[in-house]
Design goal:
mainly alpha, 57 residues
């Protein structure tokens, strides 16, 4: 059974929960990347870089 089939069997609430978990994971992964690329920036500035990536892609 592939991932799409598994997701289709979940309730709407569970699918939404999975979407939020995935979103949190991607945000955390992107923040880690920003921290690696810009270790000299303050935490606040790193979060601003994260926001730029989220907003502008």
């Amino acid at each position: 059974m592939n991932q799409t089939q598994v997701l289709k069997k979940l309730s709407g609430e569970k699918r939404l929960e999975q979407a939020f978990k995935l979103s949190d994971f991607v945000r955390e992964l992107t923040l880690r990347n920003v921290q690696l690329l810009y270790p000299h920036l303050s935490k606040k500035d790193q979060l601003m870089k994260l926001q730029e990536r989220i907003q502008y892609g």
